[in-house]
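Study the following:
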Amino acid sequence: MKALILAAGRGSRMGEKTAEQPKCLLQVGGKALIEHQLETLADCGVGPVGIVVGYCADEIREVVGFRAEFIENTAWRNTNSLYSFWTARDWVDGPVLVLNSDLLIDPKIIESLLKTDGDAIAYDSSSGEAAEQMKLHIEDGMLTAMSKSLPESEVSGENVGVLKFQARTARRLFELANKVIEGGGENDWLSSAVSEIASEVPLKPVDIHGIPWGEIDFPFDLDRARKVVWPAIRANRRGQSWPRRFARGVAMAASVATLSLVAANLLEAEPRPTEWESLELLDLNSVRITSQEQEEQRWWRLDDGSSTEIDLSGPVRLRVASRVMVDPEATPGRYAVEASVDGIPMKWHDHPVRKSKSWTAADQALGKRYAFEIELPEGRHQVRLRLVADEDKSTLVRVAKELNELAPEEEELGQAW
């Protein structure tokens, strides 16, 4: 099943946080919201993924890289989610999962929709009181209306922003969207067409009450996502089976190839810093790099096409950081660091080459630092890192393992481990 992520809008209610980037690139738990969504979809075996882009489209492409296809909404300034959905009418050619790009959701939400026969929509029965929330009205187990202005007596819950459509329903939804747009409704929400189609076909609401999720509309939503929602999702993922983690790795590799309620103790827990131990990569040459403040770090040089292997015992979480070595005379280009565990690809992070303003290696210019994480289950495992570049490049890498079980805070990504 394909997935369509609507990511064309700016998210002006976030203020300065989206002055130079869209909401889907806001960081939670060390990665952008859109990256969390891609991993969640891969967890559930959903793909390929299409992303409707508009505002800061190039920035989204740089972060996502090869992991999705892109559909352009060139009219994003004067349109809304209905129009963005309509722009993907030629890309959607069968059943599709549609989701907004400003969501942080537990994979169980996607799984609940996939297990539901026919067309389905995720909602939270414990929410829906606030004025800005998209509300649902349910009768006889089916959706009958969806609007932000539903009377309080008719509110059954809040729309999460994740929907599943069969192929014929998706086609009909595009027809309805086209009709609304031709009538001057290009600034309508997708919910207007969904409400209309609910009168034609059974649209099953799936209550995800109690499963962690968050929609990022305002700065306080982002704060809650970082402090409450993400720790709860991560705790759930720690308990998932190793075969499921392998399924995610295989799904992520295939994607590259194919081009609210949380327990009270989570609300009250005081975050503690995560401690990391840097690992030596004995089969690579070490390089000393220096900051403008004369701080030194030890990294390891990985050349294009080469690889390094690390033997580790789990359970443990690893953080892999990279800095490309920049040739001022060469075209900027891109590079990717691929990570596999026991021979199965688990991570593929594609990055643009951007010069760092703070760090150098002797007289060699360096690129900005990028990082991703890998979680290993119990047992002995072999982790392999490989550099893939669109030109002959080298990169510096560092690998660190977590020394405690707590989730990292956002600011820790800048620590000099």
